[in-house]
Each structure stands twice: as structure tokens, then as C-alpha cells.
Design a protein that fits this description.
alpha+beta, 56% helix
């Protein structure tokens, strides 16, 4: 790759804006430095910027060139110097930061879509008309219209190619759709002020349901049965779901973790979520295969808790301690 391609592969507009101290607002918006902008009107996308006020647009090189009054080539050299891109190759840290940024965007989309999917499933079950004469509840209509589309988007984020996942993320980030969906999900999940009254009205049914469950448990010698969903989870190839999970690890470019510690946390996540863990070798091979997508870097010289150099990965930070074996 030439210098222009190398810089654009390693640095995206938001990274440059943060480096050059443009204040970033929610939704990757910032005040445009190219006109008198009082409210943020410049959108910093993955590969380009665009100002809705003055129409300024371009890639990361164009952004640096306009900020500092440089030619495209000089702007490329400045970006290369500022981001440690030596010999026309992106630094490991720059590549990890770019990959981690995309992976974090995918995780956020997966979480928000998953919340919306659960809301739609609840509406389709509980808001369905009980007879042909009943009026159609708008929530039931929305569930029927949106369920399949949301499921397809979640499938792509889970199993799609990098290009397909990037297209889903870009579509959700367009016009702040993801931010609006997230805000609506929060509003819909707010506490129901009449929940206590509803529960009191159903208390007899709740008690009978609990009693029936206890009888089934006694008849099964107090062994819990396994649902079809739990069985599917247990048999799934779940390493990528683990990478997108929250609360156990997070993608962080300048962090490293030994393979043994990472596998321990992975097995803990599998146990907590009713998944069957894959072998350590399978997990390692999957991480290497998808390293570029998640901003990971395999390394044979990562220091473990005992100070020894072992196999591991750059780009992952542990949020919990691995189980002691």
C-alpha cells in the first residue's frame, strides 16, 4: 500500500478528531471547525466525515489537510507521524484501536437490537388480539412488522462477514437511528406504575404456577430439565458471542491477556450462560481467525501473573479474575 492507503487503513476520522482535540459529542458528532458552528453538525463516520451545516466532507486525510492548511501528501505525513505509522505500515496499536472501535460498535448494536427483540417478542405474545373482533394493538402490529428484520440483523452481527456486519452498523448509525432506538428501549423498560396491582390480581395464578413447578421438580428427583434453547446454547460455537459479551472482558487496544487466563474467563462465561465450552485449541484458533475483525494480535511473549512469558492476545482486557484451577 502507498502512504495514503496505509494512513486511511490505520486511522479513521474520529481518531484524528480526538487527537487534534475536537470535542466529540454523543453519536460521533462534533462542532465543525470549518465554519461558525454553535451546535455539533459534523458527523464522524468510520471512513469519512460530513458537515450538515457547510457541506464539508472527505476522508481522514482531507480532515487533517483542512485543519492545518496542508496538502494531501503533507497531511498524510503528519497523520503518519502523529499516529506512529512508520515505514508506511500502521503500528500495531493503531490497527488494534481501529479494530477495537469497529468491534465496540458491533457490540453496542448487538445489545440494543437484542433489547428491542425481547420487547417485540413480549408484545407479540401479550398484545395479540384475542378474537377477530378485537382492535389491533399498535404494539402487536409493530412486532409483526419488525421481528423478522431485527432477527436477521442480529444473525448478521453474530455470523456475518466483516463487510456485512459493517453495513449493519453503518445503517444503524445513520441519522442516529441506534441512539434513538436505545433511548426508546430505555423508556419502554421503565417501571410500570401499576405492576404491584397487576401482580396482586394474578397472585393465585402465580402461586399455582409455582406449586406445579415444585411438583414437576419433585417428580424429576429435583433435577432441572433442559430447555431446547439451553440445549442449543450448549451445543453452539459461541466464541464470537463471548467476545461480544459484556461484564467479563472488553476490547482494549493497549491491554494483553494470557491465553490460559482468557480461556478460564471464557469457561466461566459459558457456565453462567448455559453454553458448552469449546476446547482451548478451538478458542485460540477462532481468535486468530477473527483477529483483524476484533482488533486482536496474537503474541508468544505476554507476561502472566507469575512473570513468565506465555502465549496470549493483545487487544483484550479482563474484567473478572479467571477461575483458579
Amino acid at each position: 500500500m502507498n502512504l495514503f492507503e496505509t494512513v486511511k487503513a490505520a486511522v479513521h476520522p474520529r481518531m484524528a478528531a480526538e487527537r487534534y482535540e475536537l470535542p466529540i459529542q454523543q453519536g460521533s458528532m462534533t462542532c465543525c471547525p470549518f465554519h461558525a458552528d454553535r451546535t455539533p453538525s459534523m458527523k464522524l463516520n468510520e471512513d469519512y466525515f460530513y458537515c450538515f451545516g457547510c457541506g464539508a466532507h472527505g476522508d481522514v486525510i482531507d480532515l487533517a489537510a483542512r485543519l492545518f492548511g496542508l496538502s494531501g501528501y503533507d497531511a498524510s505525513k503528519k497523520l503518519a507521524a502523529d499516529f506512529g505509522i512508520a515505514g508506511q505500515k500502521p503500528s500495531i496499536l493503531a490497527r488494534l484501536q481501529r479494530g477495537a472501535s469497529q468491534a465496540e460498535a458491533e457490540r453496542r448494536c448487538f445489545r440494543v437490537l437484542g433489547d428491542y427483540l425481547r420487547i417485540l417478542q413480549d408484545w407479540k405474545t401479550n398484545c395479540a388480539p384475542q378474537s377477530p373482533e378485537d382492535a389491533i394493538d399498535p404494539r402487536y402490529a409493530e412486532a409483526c412488522h419488525m421481528l423478522e428484520r431485527i432477527e436477521n440483523m442480529l444473525d448478521i452481527l453474530t455470523c456475518g462477514t466483516p463487510k456485512e456486519r459493517a453495513e449493519v452498523v453503518a445503517d444503524l448509525q445513520k441519522d442516529d437511528r441506534l441512539m434513538r432506538m436505545e433511548a426508546r428501549n430505555r423508556q419502554l423498560r421503565e417501571d410500570d406504575p401499576f405492576l404491584a396491582d397487576k401482580l396482586c390480581g394474578e397472585i393465585e395464578g402465580i402461586f399455582l404456577w409455582c406449586l406445579e413447578g415444585l411438583r414437576r421438580l419433585q417428580a424429576n428427583n429435583f433435577r432441572f430439565t433442559e430447555s431446547s434453547q439451553t440445549k442449543a446454547n450448549r451445543e453452539a460455537d459461541n466464541v464470537l458471542l463471548f467476545l461480544r459479551s459484556e461484564g467479563y472482558i472488553r476490547l482494549k487496544a493497549d491491554s494483553a491477556i494470557p491465553s490460559a487466563a482468557l480461556y478460564g474467563i471464557y469457561t466461566m462465561w459459558c457456565s453462567d450462560n448455559a453454553y458448552k465450552p469449546r476446547s482451548a485449541r478451538t478458542v485460540s484458533m477462532t481468535l486468530k481467525k477473527h483477529a483483524d475483525e476484533f482488533g486482536l494480535e496474537h503474541d508468544n511473549h505476554i507476561q502472566n501473573a507469575l512473570g513468565k512469558r506465555v502465549n496470549g492476545f493483545w487487544g483484550i482486557e479482563a474484567l473478572v479474575a479467571p477461575p483458579v484451577v
